[in-house]
Each structure stands twice: as structure tokens, then as C-alpha cells.
Design goal:
Blueprint (H helix, E strand, L loop, with lengths): L2 E7 L3 H14 L4 E3 L8 E6 L4 H23 L5 E5 H14 L5 E3 L7 H13 L6 E3 L21 E5 L1 E2 L10 H5 L3 E2 L2 H13 L4 E5 L8 E2 L5 E2 L1 H9 L6 E5 L8 H9 L6 E3 L7 H6 L6 H14 L4 E8 L6 H14 L3 E6 L17 H24 L5 E9 L5 E5 L5 E5 L1 H5 L20 E9 L3 E6 L7
Parallel strand pairs: 1-2, 1-3, 3-4, 4-5, 5-6, 7-10, 10-13, 14-15, 15-16, 19-21
Antiparallel strand pairs: 8-9, 11-12, 17-18, 17-20, 18-19, 20-21
Helix pairs in contact: 7-8, 11-12
The chain binds S-adenosyl-L-homocysteine (SAH), iron/sulfur cluster and FE3-S4 cluster.
């Protein structure tokens, strides 16, 4: 019997990976994915708890789904609503109380049990019990050992989780509570999964972990590998042209990883290295355990290993106790590093975290004003970074159809979104379409092309492919 599952993903890339693995786990049980909740037998909300609004979004989505579920029931169809991910882990029991329409709640570490959980929820519904299914364990057996080998379609770019959990306990952050303790997958498992991804057409892999550069996975030969060593192993797979990793912590930026940017051509010249604040006093209160000066040393070492490396970061403004001079220190750090892109947030007190009970909360209006100034600076830097690409030729991995006909969307080595006008290059005969895959331009997806950049905007750049068929 074929059943339909719709999975909606919030939050970080690890949730994106987890959602794909949920689909992989369900597929042998007759579930096919559908991209809308309408008509689905099972809807999974894979949630994020990092900031307030994220959880609120989940509640309003559950509200919308309730209406849909009631409509379906009138037509004699049953729809099951499941809440997964970090909100499920943190507030699962409360969610079930607040929204009785939810049939099933499970956390990020138990989704390998999903088919059994779904059966159990179905059974309880058939018996019309008021009990529902809640599974927010941190099981001793790692979920990775129980995930199926078969991967669904992945497209040319894929995420691969290599490390989970966090032991760092930054005082603002819920992740150590929602994802549990730090854990690294063995090297052989990761290489095996990367090979299967390569066989499924993947060319670009992003290695994921909440603290990806704290990676220390077991080697078959004994001992453990650093992330730098793991990148060497994955780069040895021929089809894998590009490797990235995220998210890194400054404390774990070791020499082998910095050297990987110099020595491994597939290791892309882009790094997301969140610093959060430029003030040592605030960094200390955040429990980040490094100074601004140490961060600059790392940036300098990275730039001498790979001069063109593009940098990105996360920033929190209005952390408890942050005063004007702390904030100015953050602006000064940004000026000095010069980022290609960045994410920034107002501090949001999260239940159960140490900073949430601090007496020195910063007023909302001050947070808003600081965020606007910070984002202004970051936007200018990002725009300048993009503008500097004009006239250059960059390799672009084509990932999906573009907005306009004859256009495809891809990424530069520096993570910029690139709109590529393929129409003319194909008409000229510079590139040939694979007739077997249909005659539209989508058959070029997955190719790596040298593209001359002709225009730049705040969030993307655009260009035309050069005639160099040898590149794909
Ligand atoms: N492991 C990563 C980041 C995980 S969370 C790291 O160590 O950097 C992603 C980002 O969300 C963080 O970098 C931080 O900038 C932001 N964030 C986390 N908790 C937050 C909070 N309570 N309020 C505002 N932003 C927060
Ligand atoms: Fe959260 Fe800090 Fe761990 Fe990152 S390192 S996941 S910010 S506790
Ligand atoms: Fe959000 Fe959980 Fe990721 S809280 S950011 S989905 S680890």
C-alpha cells in the first residue's frame, strides 16, 4: 500500500539532513514523499527551537494542519500529524497538551524508529485511546547504525551529518539540551555514505555537525581522525568535486583543518565560523572560551593558507549585559574581518539556559537598533564581496532551474548563489544537452561550468558560461 508523507523542515541544515533520512527510513514501508500536506497520510513538522519565533511558527502550522485534518476526516480520510526535531525534544509533552491534534512526537535522536512509532500511533488511534506516542529518548544505540543504506534522490548538492550534539554549553543556546552530547560517526561509515551519494549523482557534499570541527571519528585502523583528515578521505572519491563543512567553532579550528584549505582542491574556499560577538567580556559571559584576538589569529592563518577564502559568521546582538562599547567591539571585529556573508540575530532568552535568567537583559528597542546597524554593515560587506566578482570567472555547480527560462541556478566556490544564462551557450554549441534526460536545460544540472560574472546584487551574482566543455 502506498502512503504519502509530507515533511516540512525548519531550522538548520542538520534538520534538512534528518528530514531526508526520515524519508529514507519510511520509503521501505510504502511511504512516498509529497511536497504539500494536502492528501498526505502523514505530515511531519521537523522543528527548530533555537529562537522564540521558531516554536511559535510550529504552533501556527499545527493550527493550519488541524483544519486540513478535519476536512480530510469529513471525507473519510485519516491524516496523521507528527512533530519532530528540537521543539519536539524540548517541549514535546507540553505540545501534546497544548495541541491534542498531534498524533506523534519524536526527537532528533529517535527517528530511526519512525516506522514503529507510526504503527503505534495508528494502533492507538484505531483503538480510540486518548494516549498518543511520545519518543524523546537519547538512545544508547546511535540512530546512524539503524538508518537504511538506500538513499533517495539527492540532487548535485547534499548534506552529510558526521557529528551530532554539543558539549560546549554556550550560555544562550538550547542545542546541548535538544541534541544531546557530542558524538562523531566513524570515518568508514561516512565515506561509505559519501560514496553512495556520489553514485546517486552528488558532486558537492557539506559535512554537518553542531560542532563539526570537533569531529573525532573512529578509524578502522584504530585511533581517530580529525575533520581535516576526514576531508582528505572524502576528497579521494572521484565524483566529489566540492566539500564544505558547517558549523565550526573557533576553539576547534586546528592546523589539520586549516591545512586542508591549502592542500585539498575540493575543500572549498568558504568557511562559516561563528564568532557571536567581538567583545571579550561578552564572549566570556557566553562561555565561548576564546577572545576576539584568538579569532583574528585563526582568520589570519586561514587567509595565509587560502588567500581567497570567503568568511561567514553568526552574530548575536543584545546578549545580557551587552553595552555600547561591547557592541562597538563587534562592529570593529566585522570591519577587520570583512565578511562575504553573515547571519545575525537579536538575543532570545531560551528556557533552561543560563543567560535567560540573567538580570541584565537588554531592552528590545536597543536590540533592534543594534541589529539594524550591524546588518547594515554586514549587507554592505556582502554587496562589496559580490560586486568584486564582476569580470571574474568562477566555477559554478549548476543545482536547479533558475527563475527565468534559459537560466539555471548554482553556487560559486565562495557559496554565492549564481544565476547562469545557459541559453546562449547551448545555442552556440558550447554546451550540449543530454537528450536522454530531455531537451530542456535541466539536463545541465549537476555540471560544473566556468562562468564569467557580469552582474552582482546583494544576494546573488549572475553570468554566462565560458566554452570549456572539459570542465564537467
Ligand atoms: N553550533 C553553532 C551554532 C548553532 S545555533 C556554533 O557554535 O556557532 C546557530 C546560531 O543561532 C548561533 O550561532 C547563534 O548565533 C544563534 N543563536 C543560538 N541561540 C540563540 C539565542 N538564544 N538567541 C539568539 N540567537 C541564538
Ligand atoms: Fe550552541 Fe555553543 Fe554548542 Fe554552538 S557551540 S551548538 S552555539 S552550545
Ligand atoms: Fe534548530 Fe535544533 Fe538545528 S534547535 S538550529 S534545528 S539543532
Amino acid at each position: 500500500m502506498t502512503r504519502k508523507v509530507h515533511i516540512k523542515t525548519y531550522g538548520c541544515q542538520m534538520n534538512v539532513y534528518d528530514s531526508q533520512r526520515m524519508a529514507d527510513v519510511l520509503r521501505p514501508h510504502g511511504f512516498v514523499e509529497t511536497d504539500a500536506p494536502d492528501g498526505a497520510d502523514l505530515v511531519i513538522l521537523n522543528t527548530c527551537h533555537i529562537r522564540e519565533k521558531a516554536a511559535e511558527k510550529v504552533y501556527s502550522e499545527v493550527g493550519r494542519l488541524r483544519a486540513l485534518k478535519e476536512d480530510e476526516a469529513k471525507n473519510g480520510r485519516q491524516m496523521m500529524i507528527a512533530v519532530a526535531g528540537c521543539v519536539a525534544q524540548a517541549e514535546g509533552a507540553e505540545m501534546m497538551r497544548r495541541a491534542p491534534v498531534i498524533d506523534l512526537v519524536f526527537g532528533p535522536q529517535t527517528y530511526h524508529r519512525l516506522p514503529a512509532l507510526v504503527d503505534e500511533a495508528l494502533r492507538q488511534r484505531a483503538e480510540r485511546t486518548s494516549a498518543r506516542v511520545l519518543d524523546t529518548d537519547f538512545p544508547v544505540e546511535a540512530k546512524f547504525d539503524h538508518l537504511p543504506g538506500d538513499l533517495g534522490a539527492r540532487g548535485p548538492s547534499a548534506f552529510l551529518t558526521v557529528q551530532e550534539g554539543c558539549d560546549k554549553f554556550c550560555t544562550f543556546c538550547v542545542v546541548p539540551y535538544t541534541r544531546g552530547a557530542e558524538f562523531s560517526r566513524p570515518v568508514a561509515d561516512i565515506v561509505d555514505e559519501a560514496r553512495r551519494m556520489a553514485a546517486a549523482g552528488v558532486r558537492d557534499i557539506t559535512l554537518l555537525g553542531q560542532n563539526v570541527n570537533a569531529y573525532h571519528g573512529a578509524l578502522d585502523s584504530g585511533g581517530s581522525a580529525t575533520l581535516g583528515e576526514l576531508i582528505h578521505e572524502v576528497a579521494a572519491i572521484d565524483e566529489i568535486a566540492r566539500i564544505r563543512y558547517t558549523t565550526s567553532h573557533p576553539r576547534d579550528m586546528d592546523d589539520s583543518l586549516i591545512a586542508a584549505h591549502r592542500d585539498i582542491p575540493a575543500c572549498m574556499p568558504y568557511l562559516h565560523l561563528p564568532v557571536q560577538s567581538g567583545s571579550d567580556r561578552i564572549l566570556d559571559a557566553m562561555n565561548r572560551k576564546h577572545t576576539a584576538e584568538r579569532y583574528f589569529e585563526i582568520i589570519d592563518a586561514l587567509r595565509s593558507a587560502r588567500p581567497d577564502i570567503a568568511l561567514s559568521s553568526d552574530f548575536i546582538v543584545g546578549f545580557p549585559g551587552e553595552d555600547d562599547s561591547d557592541f562597538e567591539a563587534t562592529l570593529a571585529l566585522i570591519e577587520r574581518v570583512n565578511y562575504a556573508q553573515a547571519y545575525s540575530f537579536k538575543y532570545s532568552p531560551r528556557p533552561g539556559t543560563p543567560a535567560s535568567v540573567s538580570e541584565d537583559q537588554v531592552p528590545e528597542a536597543v536590540k533592534s537598533e543594534r541589529l539594524a546597524r550591524l546588518q547594515d554593515l554586514l549587507n554592505t560587506q556582502q554587496h562589496n564581496f559580490n560586486a568584486a566578482s564582476i569580470g571574474q570567472t568562477v566555477d559554478v555547480l549548476l543545482e536547479r532551474p533558475g527563475r527565468r527560462a534559459g537560466q539555471l541556478l548554482g553556487r560559486s566556490p565562495y557559496m554565492q548563489a549564481v544565476h547562469v544564462d545557459v541559453h546562449e551557450a547551448v545555442t552556440n554549441g558550447d554546451y550540449t544537452l543530454d537528450e536522454a534526460q530531455g531537451t530542456n536545460y535541466d539536463s545541465l544540472i549537476g555540471r560544473l561550468m566556468p562562468v564569467r560574472i557580469v552582474a552582482a546584487g546583494p544576494n546573488s551574482i549572475s553570468g554566462v558560461p565560458l566554452a570549456n566543455e572539459a570542465q564537467h
